[in-house]
Amino acid sequence: MRWFEIALVVLTLVTGVVWLLDRLVLAKRRTASQGLLDDDGEPWYVDYSKAFFPVLLVVLVLRSFIAEPFRIPSNSMMPTLLTGDFILVNKFAYGLRMPITNDKFVDIGAPARGDVVVFRPPHHPDQDWIKRVIGLPGDRVAYFDNQVHVNGVPVGYESLGTYQGIDSGIEMTGAEELVEQLPGRPHRVLERSSLPFLDPGQGEWVVPAGHYFVMGDNRDNSEDSRYWGFLPEQNLRGKAFLIWMHLDGGVDFSRIGESIQ
Questions:
Q1: What is the pLDDT of residues 132-175, one digit of tens each?
Q2: In terms of residue numbers, what domain contains 82?
Q3: Is 131 a catalytic residue?
Q4: Which of 15, 111, 236, 258 has the fewest CB atoms found within 10 Å of its own CB?
């Protein structure tokens, strides 16, 4: 959706410049020409700019600095988030950032372990992805035999039984649903313990300064830091906090208003 952000910024700037130019120069010229043969009506581009500039400005400010809507496009965050969930992302949780460039100009906070974050992955800088923060700067993170270890301490798990998927998530039916006791943020994950091949996502990593280690809650169906590396802090877009709609083969009203844990 980066194209939408670029278009929104450009349209806001263009309509704003026209509005300001009319207020400072063009309107005075029209007033001075009243009573002459010249047409003293507002040009169409001034009329449109005056109508759309306030709306575009409000949308740009809200979307860039307050909250931005996103749609979940894949199953990588099941069971926490499902394909078709429409979520809201807090854009000021980790600092205020400029539209398009994503450069931070006000430092407010930093991700906590367990936060669900939206970001631009280093290998796909034009896309917005969503994962969970597992490792903070300086942490030693390991993942072996479907178990996360943080700084040498294995994370505990509580089984909730066999998962039953629906709609686009039907492929995960039969996986084991567990509560992962991540320090400070217990949350649900999906695991398949009977896969017939060696998990290529196993390993141990030390998170460098200014970076984070992120993973999807659907552990066997997530392209995350286990495969492409660490998430730079400057690539963060915000913190996911609310599901405001679910549409995947129909509307699921039970998910509307659900907070993201």
A1: 999 999 999 999 989 999 999 999 999 999 999 999 999 999 99
A2: 72-255
A3: yes
A4: 258
Annotated active-site residue in 131, 222, 225, 239:
131
Same domain (yes/no): 59, 123: no
Prediction pTM value: 0.91
Q: Tokens 């010229």 — which residue?
A: 29
Is 222 an annotated catalytic residue? no
Q: 80 and 55 share a domain?
A: no
pLDDT in tens, 33-74: 765 545 557 888 999 999 999 999 999 999 999 999 999 999
Q: Looking at 49, 64, 74, 76, which residue is catalytic?
A: 76
Domain end call among 50, 66, 82:
66
